[in-house]
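Figure S4 source data
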Amino acid sequence: MSKEAILERIISDAQSAAEAVIAEAEKKSALIIAEAEAAAERDRLGTKAVIAEKSKAIFDGKSAAARLDSAKILLAEKRRVIDQIYAKALDRLKNMPASDAVTLAEKLICAYAEDGDEIVFSSDFKHKAQVLKLSVIAEKKLKVSGKTADISGGFILIGENSDKDLSYGALLALDREEHQAEIAAKLF
């Protein structure tokens, strides 16, 4: 073989080897690109799932907070309405006719007074004179205080063993404690 033929053969073999190396590199490159694209797609889907999960958590948290705020507003409104009802009831008790006030006082004294208790009327009790004429006052030997109490209508019984707050405010507070849930259910 001549030098030229050998040279051409070497160049031809080198070109063939170079083409094979390039083809192999392109295959590897395509495989690496495909793997990178697949990894990127997995990352994108994973990120999308994380974002969806975080978005749902944020939405659920805001929904729960909104429900809680709504419940607080509703509860405050219920309390406001019930406060108004009991304020009107207190006003009506303070301004009830004398016969009703005396009858109520008599029932309370009969039920709660002990012999020798001292009666302290509220400063705004209008029917003290009529209550003091009740026979139960003498029967139970009740004393009448010269002082007045800073209470919401009615009176207090001061006893040897215990004091009893029979003011209209205390009676309504007790009623409210016992019936508030029932009243709220009927109103709302």
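Figure S5 source data
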Amino acid sequence: MSTNATRFINSYNVIDQTLRSVHGFKRNMTFSDMIRRSVSHNAVVRKYEDKLIDYARLRNAIVHNSNENRVIAEPHQRVVEEMEKIARLVSTPPLIMNSIAKKNVLILGHNTSIRKTIETIGETGFRTIPIYKDGMLVGVINPNRLIDELGAKISVGTDINDYISNTPVSTVLREDDINTYYCIRSEKLTIQEAMDLFFTKRKLQVIVITPQGNYLQSPTGIVTAADIIDMNDIIENYAV
């Protein structure tokens, strides 16, 4: 079999084996069916769904109609390189901490006043700030949440100057924010997994990264919904 055909089949097999292993697909499930079922769980498969199904047909043409001396379909070099790229993205996706995550993370204590929080956002430019109480992550604050809170207080005639000076920022946090607007994951989070989180959790704004994905650990990185474009670029330009 030709070099290109061999490289193509090897990459196909890597994708096939990885998806079966990760998602527990049965051996009798076709490659195309696996691709369709993986779309909702895998950002890379979702991005290349149509091409992978087309490439499955090419693979069948090569395998079922070829022998060592005769190949009925010879993959183009560009197709082979793309298949190899997809195989690497599926089997060894890049870690979010090695690329996208912002590692300079600012945190505030739960008793920090709203005034001090607003001043800190203005002075530092940090717009997403994890809030900790006794070493535990209790929420994430951002300008949008602060504006909503202040707007509500103004509408009922609250003395805003007194309110922001004497109210801890933790009062702005909501229990249902956890896993709705933010979640916590370990440093092993891949770009594909991060994209899947934003895809499945439509209201998700922030992923807080800690060494083991533990609420009792300090953050080592932050990923926001605004980073999705950069994540797409990395997947698009991932080098073989």
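The beta strands are 108-109, 129-133, 136-141, 182-186, 206-210, 221-224. Residues 141 and 235 are 29 Å apart (CA to CA).
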